[in-house]
Design brief:
6 helices, Ferritin, mainly alpha, single chain
């Protein structure tokens, strides 16, 4: 079990590392600074704290899901899709300034996390609650992305 925790932690935090590569300088760049952002946009430090907590919870969820699911191929396929969507949003939004495409990516990611919750609820029961921080954060992030799309 410890090995699986380490593997999922490394993979999940690699996603965060790649995302922050595209985000860190871009947040202070002229393009992002000049955007009309949602009044509920949290301060920058909240994003790091939120994603760290989310990835720890999601790692624990994945370890339990790995142990309790019969279809590991589907679980890993969904995990890989989640990883790709998560990582791809940052360059799409911050580097290429494709706000609409970024919104599409984040909506797909939110739907996928909703699927994780409902599909694995019968098997994982209360452990499925570990997916909720990810889903809720994506809900907030989707509103931030949509606000930027609409107001700019």
């Amino acid at each position: 079990m410890l090995l699986k925790i380490i593997i999922f932690l490394v993979i999940n935090f690699a996603a965060l590392g790649l995302g922050s590569y595209f985000t860190s300088a871009a947040v202070t760049a002229e393009w992002y600074q000049n955007l009309n952002k949602a009044p509920w946009t949290p301060p920058g430090w909240v994003f790091g704290a939120a994603w760290t907590s989310i990835m720890i919870c999601f790692t624990v969820f994945m370890v339990y899901a790995w142990q309790l699911t019969e279809n590991r191929n589907l679980l890993i396929a969904l995990f890989v899709i989640q990883w790709i969507l998560n990582v791809s949003w940052n360059p799409v939004f911050f580097k290429y300034h494709q706000v609409l495409f970024g919104l599409l990516i984040i909506v797909l990611l939110m739907v996928l996390m909703g699927y994780f919750f409902f599909a694995y609820l019968p098997h994982l029961k209360a452990k499925t609650l570990l997916v909720l921080p990810y889903f809720i954060w994506l809900l907030v992030a989707t509103t931030l992305n949509a606000y930027i799309l609409i107001k700019n």
